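New to this. Explain the following:
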Amino acid sequence: MCMPLEPKRASRRSNKKSGTKTMITKEKVEDILYMGNFSCDYKTDDEEDYHPYDGCTSNLYMVVEDDTTTVEVAGRKSPLYKEGYQTIIMDAPFFPATFLLRTEVDHSEEE
């Protein structure tokens, strides 16, 4: 039997991580900070629970802009997911802390 010479088709896998987290750009996070419709909690690496963030927004911009900071959106299977909200996880190793930004999801835009 001969081998086909055609290129193999790519699988139908999504670019998103299945399960707990999906990707978001830092630019989109900066847009959320600019709009101001968010709540923010944080925890340092030696803490187990998140606390309300009471610092200024310009510090959050510095966290997002740092090269070592990663940003992701918590998926439905993540323990950080909250129904009706988009939860953005900002892991800032230089700080060291993890920040949660939550914005309400507007379901009217999806229709």
